[in-house]
Design a protein that fits this description.
Blueprint lengths: L4 E5 L2 E4 L20 E4 L15 H6 L1 H7 L3 E4 L3 E3 L8 E7 L6 H13 L3 E7 L8 H6 L32 H4 L3 H5 L2 E3 L7 E3 L29 H18 L5 E5 L12 H18 L4 E4 L4 H4 L6 E3 L9 H4 L22 H14 L4 E3 L18 H13 L5 E3 L59 H5 L5 H14 L8 E4 L9 E6 L4 E7 L5 E6 L6 E6 L6 E3 L4 E6 L3 E6 L2
Helix pairs in contact: 7-8, 12-14
Length: 579
């Protein structure tokens, strides 16, 4: 294994010590042409009239989900929870929260999904539990009980180390388990067990104990990763996964998968834990199931044994420069997918190319249309259907496995005025109810409007499934068409090659190539409100426009001896077949 260091950016150093030579590894047979659909269960469909979505409600909508072109649904946490962090504070990992239904309801959901040739993936919170979990309650009592070492109990609080050597470091995935960060997560305890416990996020989320990288002998609570407590914790995580997969679940998205081993600054111990144990066990026992990381660093997570990792909203890296700022009130509108056309590509491109090349033929870098933790695609000034179609063209013509956030297929708009709910803070606006029709509560529920889990989007011209279905040129039908088109042309799919062919210093239009052994296609993207012209190395042939959302009177492709000129109309995307 070659050890190399890569500079992510001026302020972000990321080790590539774990990037091995590219080799094709066995993936689940269904994964290469999969399309995932993320559902926040509380907001999708209420079947019993209490204002909160549930599992039977999701089951009733499976035919619709199938019609979009989806092959797998991912559910945010459905387990019994204290609801201090939107379900991510789990009380019982083996039981569905009563607000959603029962374990039997999950089995029925899976059976119906499978009958429609769709998969179901659950959200696994591997790094922490709820303070009300039976494991934690027992662990508070004494040091030699069954679950005593499932958690971390410091006997004193060390002084925070000097931060001088961390000047300028702002990368969350690098710093989340640094020594200073862990010390700041000491929670004062009145429990008999000890004066402190370590949390992951809120005080109600005590960290599960997977051990410490290089334990400090002066800190007796820092157990080694192969100590009995951390090893028991690994067995418990396998037990949870096996319990649900033996009921038909097709895999897991692992919440904050990089957070398990503490004080693991370079993530080497966490990578080893997954690669040599958890992910290894998973693949040996459930080879057709999928393991998805929320790590935001595919070069590490794919090496750790995951099939997919996300490239989306992590700080100012990943695709933040493409989609954020414009969707937040009071911003200056500087991001790439904005009508102002003042965005840039270089920051995104440098990191994306690094990640793409690091995991090519080993796993997938996936850019989701949105998720429950950040602002929706349709937000603020970026809300018209033509803008959203351009963005969808980008998402569905890039390599990797597409993830569609519920409602994005109809342009469900961010509600910036949604109140905080169950620890969501400012994230509520992306977790709002799905809009099905023009009836009361938009078909989401029969409860009084004031009893809904979150308010409906206030948009008076809101798009619903019903009115989008009836319009052939709607965003919904465009999404269906582009998913079908992607599947019909593997050169646009997960595994085909990708490269930017336009000049990133002249960002509009963005032009990239998709290719395989027999075909070459070119995609031209212009989210700005002005006509733009880009130059790319000449292919020497006149391509044909096969798909897109564009004005054919303005868009054209002119072949030259050395360079081809591609003219793209305002707010347009064109997919060209070159050969």
């Amino acid at each position: 294994m070659n050890i190399r260091s890569f500079l992510f950016s001026a302020v972000c150093l990321v080790s590539a010590a774990f990037v091995s030579a590219q080799t094709t590894v066995q993936q689940p047979s269904w994964l290469s042409d999969a399309v995932f659909y993320q559902i926040y269960p509380s907001s999708y469909q209420d079947s019993d009239g209490n204002g909160i979505g549930d599992i039977p409600g999701i089951t009733s909508r499976l035919e619709y989900i199938k019609s979009v072109g989806v092959s797998c649904i991912w559910l945010n946490p459905i387990f019994v929870s204290g609801w201090t962090d939107g379900g991510y504070d789990v009380i019982d990992f083996y039981k569905v929260d009563p607000r959603f239904g029962t374990n039997d309801d999950v089995v029925k959901l899976v059976e119906k999904a499978h009958s429609l040739d769709m998969k179901v993936v659950l959200d696994l919170v591997a790094g922490h539990s709820s303070i009300d979990c039976a494991w934690f309650k027992q662990a508070t009592e004494a040091s030699n009980l069954q679950y005593s070492d499932y958690y971390i109990w410091p006997s004193f609080k060390p002084e925070v180390q000097s931060t001088a050597n961390l000047a300028g470091q702002t990368d969350y995935t690098q710093l989340m388990n640094s020594f200073n960060n862990i010390v700041n997560k000491f929670v004062k305890s009145d429990y008999p067990r000890g004066p402190y416990y370590i949390k992951n996020f809120f005080d109600t989320q005590p960290a599960l104990n997977f051990g410490f990288a290089n334990p400090d002998p002066e800190h007796p609570w820092e157990q080694a990763v192969d100590a009995p407590g951390p090893m028991a914790m690994r067995r418990e995580i396998k037990s949870i996964m096996a319990f649900w997969m033996d009921k038909g679940i097709d895999g897991f998205r692992v919440d904050m998968a990089a957070s398990l081993v503490k004080n693991d600054f370079d993530k080497s111990a966490t990578i080893k834990l997954w690669k040599e144990d958890l992910a290894k066990w998973f693949k040996e026992n459930y080879p057709e199931n999928v393991l998805i990381a929320e790590w935001f660093n595919p070069s590490m997570s794919i090496e750790a044994g995951f099939h997919i990792d996300f490239f989306c909203h992590d700080g100012k890296y990943n695709y933040s420069t493409l989609f954020f700022n414009t969707s937040r009130r009071g911003s200056d509108g500087v991001c790439y997918f904005d009508l102002n056309g003042k965005g840039e590509l270089k920051k995104w491109l440098d990191l994306y190319q690094f990640q793409y090349n690091s995991v090519k033929n080993k796993g997938y870098v996936s850019m989701p249309s949105g998720n429950h933790d950040f602002t929706r695609l349709a937000a603020g000034p970026r809300s018209t259907e033509d803008q959203l179609k351009v963005a969808m063209t980008f998402f569905f013509t890039m390599p990797g496995v597409p993830f569609l956030f519920y409602g994005d297929e109809i342009g469900l708009m961010q509600n910036f005025n949604a109140p905080p709910k169950e620890g969501s803070g400012g994230r509520s606006g992306s977790r709002i109810p799905m809009l099905w029709d023009d009836s009361a509560d938009a078909g989401f529920s029969t409860a009084p409007e004031e009893d809904l889990y979150l308010p409906l989007t206030p948009d008076p011209d809101r798009r619903t499934v019903q009115n989008q279905e009836a319009n052939e040129s709607s965003l919904l039908n465009y999404v269906r068409s582009i998913i079908d088109f992607r599947r019909a042309n593997s050169v646009l799919g997960a595994d085909a090659d990708w490269k930017l062919v336009s000049n990133p210093n002249n960002p509009y239009p963005m032009i990239y190539e998709r290719s395989n052994e027999t075909e070459v296609w070119v995609i031209a993207i212009n989210p700005s409100a002005k006509k733009v012209v880009g130059e790319i190395p000449s292919y020497g042939v006149q391509p044909t426009a096969e798909f897109g959302c564009y004005d054919a009177k303005v868009c054209n492709y002119k072949v030259g001896n050395l360079n081809d000129k591609v003219t793209v109309a305002p707010v347009s995307a064109v997919v060209y077949k070159v050969k």
